[in-house]
Amino acid sequence: MAGITFLFTGQKYLAIFGALYLGLVCLLAIPFFQGHALYLNSVRIPLFSDYATPEKYGLAPNRTLNLKIRTSDNETLGAWFVLSDPYYRSLSTIPSDVSKHVKFALAAGPVVLFFHGNAATRAFSARVRHYQAFGSRLGASVLAIDYRGFADSTGTPSEAGLTRDAKAAFNWLVEHGKKPEEILIAGHSLGSGVSGQLGAELSRDGITPKGIVLLSPFSSIREVLETYQMFGFIPLIKPLSVIPGALRLVQRLLIHRFDTLQAVPNITAPVLIAHAENDWDIPHSHSDVLFEAFLDPLLPPVDLALEPFSMSESLWLKITEQQAARKAKRGEIVSTQTLPKFGTLQSFSDKGRKVVLVKTLAGAHDYLGVQEGLVDIIGKTFGILV
Ligand SMILES: *[C@@H]1O[C@H](CO)[C@@H](O)[C@H](O)[C@H]1NC(C)=O
Ligand SMILES: *[C@@H]1O[C@H](CO)[C@@H](O)[C@H](O)[C@H]1NC(C)=O
Ligand SMILES: *[C@@H]1O[C@H](CO)[C@@H](O)[C@H](O)[C@H]1NC(C)=O
Hints:
Elements: H1 2-28, H2 31-39, E1 64-70, E2 76-82, H3 85-90, H4 102-108, E3 111-115, H5 125-137, E4 141-145, H6 159-175, E5 183-188, H7 190-204, E6 211-215, H8 221-227, E7 229-230, E8 234-235, H9 246-252, H10 260-263, E9 271-276, H11 285-295, H12 313-333, E10 335-339, E11 343-350, E12 353-360, H13 372-382
Parallel strand pairs: 3-4, 3-5, 5-6, 6-9, 9-12
Antiparallel strand pairs: 1-2, 2-4, 7-8, 10-11, 11-12
Helix pairs in contact: 6-7
């Protein structure tokens, strides 16, 4: 008897869960909710942030300028400019007006333009740790912005809007004397999508930044939806595949695409992609996909088997040969290095442009970029190690 009751109760919960799930998916089809679910910009962590006092979040006294950046469509973005450690330490006294030091800090050392992931603000502790790691191990000053609709910035987030915000931040550094080719762009998670779009746009305008670092990136939002697992084990939209056409419908309704994979052929800057193997939010296979996309134009093509189950023997042999040739060429171009207890590093150069893929064992989704080993690899790759 107890068993049957249990079964009955189980079915009831399953039905409730199913209804909630379908409700959630329907909500996501509505642009307003889709935007909120993707950007999570109304999650303002830390709560009641005091952006004017970065000291509260662990940064040294008067090391950080809290500033506003105006975008080309007249939104106002909240941002922090954090002086590099070597520059801050070189001052004999604590500065009384940080704004007077921006030009000198930019002239004295490297700069990282940082684009954060979804939810929370530039004051979030995991992000502050990135500014600290770049400031100390790279000796770099950091400009970190909050996109439109986030933190104390005006406006509502959108893909085009965030790309505009990124360009405004890039221009701010140029206006303060930094050469475009000396700016290192680093984007984490959603920020990697923003960096990819900015990278493609800069290339289109003939501008080559120092490099683009993609931390815990995704190949496209569509792929994230397909591979995302809540709590690491409940697939988000995979169950929809039992309803014919439902999966395709959800993908069609996707407004915010951030398709970095599509942007890859347009990006001409050097690129470093990094992903932790224990990232439960975005699987590290996304980074493999991006690295292979950068590599693809350098490898011989392989014919598609249009009818794989009725292939002729000659076609099969031809494809097998092509695959072997592609693999051999890949082995020739890509150098692979195992870093014991830390991870693996793959890289190749094409006409002087370097592309690097780092897979780390630790760091998960949020703390990948603060690992000293990774920051050092970033420094070596772009020649900015203190
Ligand atoms: C830009 O926005 C500000 C307020 O945020 C407003 O005062 C100003 O008139 C706007 N300028 C333009 C060109 O729309
Ligand atoms: C920090 O800057 C403020 C002005 O913004 C100044 O009043 C204060 O004295 C400075 N702090 C220190 C420790 O010098
Ligand atoms: C890449 O460049 C092509 C041709 O210039 C353009 O049509 C396309 O929109 C660009 N894609 C991205 C993602 O920038």
